[in-house]
Glycoside hydrolase family 130 protein
Amino acid sequence: MRAAPRRDRRSRGVTGTGADRSWVRRTDHLLRPDPDRVVARLFLPGQELASSGRSRAAAVLQRVRALDDAAVERELTELTGAFDDRHHDLEATWETHFAHVCHGSDAAGSMSAQHRRLVGAYFTAEYAVQSAALFNPSMVAHPDQSGLPAGTTRFVMTLRSTGEGHVSSMELRTGTIDVDDVVRFDPPPTRAVQPVVAVEQAQRSDARGYDITFPADSALNERVLMPQTPAERNGVEDVRMVRLEHADGATSYAGTYTAYDGQGISIQLLRTQDFVTMSSRPLSGPGARDKGLAIFPRQVGGRWCAMSRADRESNAVSTSQDLVHWDEPVVVQRPEQGWEAIQLGNCGSPVETERGWLVLTHGVGPMRTYSIGALLLDLDEPTRVVGRLTSPLLTAVGDERSGYVPNVVYSCGAMLHGRTLVLPYGTSDSATRVALVDVDPLLDALVGGR
């Protein structure tokens, strides 16, 4: 997918700031939720009715066992024709769901392989992971940069997808940015692939941390991380992915996200080297209160740093020795301007420039409008502010204002490409777009307080 700058769509923003600055270019990219993107997950008849308190699994199992071989073969043929191309190894999923339902049952040993698969199919349902929304992206350099023309960068984008029941998951997309700053997304995936969770962790009902592995033959942009533990049963929300540069020269990826259990929230840390094997662990400490922790890409003064919003309305900097426990945050920016008077927060991990740490921020103003701003912090002392924008960098315009939560622009992380900041952003908690920001005039505006 290729798109030119959206120069003709600078309709008035909701905060009354008028047209975009000349060095901000919105592209025509638009990622909308696709209801055909589905996963196959366990379905227990009766349990979808919260008031019943019981499952009808035993009765369903008995009915399927009573079917003769011809009927079983006929149903499996029809099911395979209708669903196989939508899923990764559907027969293996049916076998897994059969084993889950019939674990410890005498039925398991007496049934044919075809009967087992059909039983598994009856205890399987499709779930459209992005039937409601696809938004709040972050962008990092892909771990594989081989085979590209000079000046081109391959990227990985994380996205928050929301489906039935307002359950959020993490999805991935890939693409390139060339020497002329043209953004191209790879073709969208035709199927969604879930990871395998370590057996001992999957069996623990109290687990908050886990390790997962995606099938080796799955493409990166097919992979979906749905909630895995009780702490995140209602959502894996707003992953802020960053490429970390370690003191020994090694690199890895880390993504903080909000785990939502339907009542309360906590912050988890997702870590990976290759987006195949990942680990998730809970974060602790006063700096990890509330949501929106965003880790700096390298250590400063021998410690990891992160943007924190522990007081729920200000931007602060917290430090950590191990990326897990975060110390008491130091406030560096409080709401001052009208467009941020309700609260401030970050829009992803800081980006290192020669003039300071560039932090994209979000501000909430009147009529619950969300705007994207920017802050510049000292490279060696990130608790010292070098500059800040007094007016928004980006506000919702035109049809960006319409969606599940109106009048919102929001990002979970941008990527520097040469002297251009590639800024993917969610619009009104519904869809995803891309803007290109010239870094040099942005830095001048920050230092000049414009």
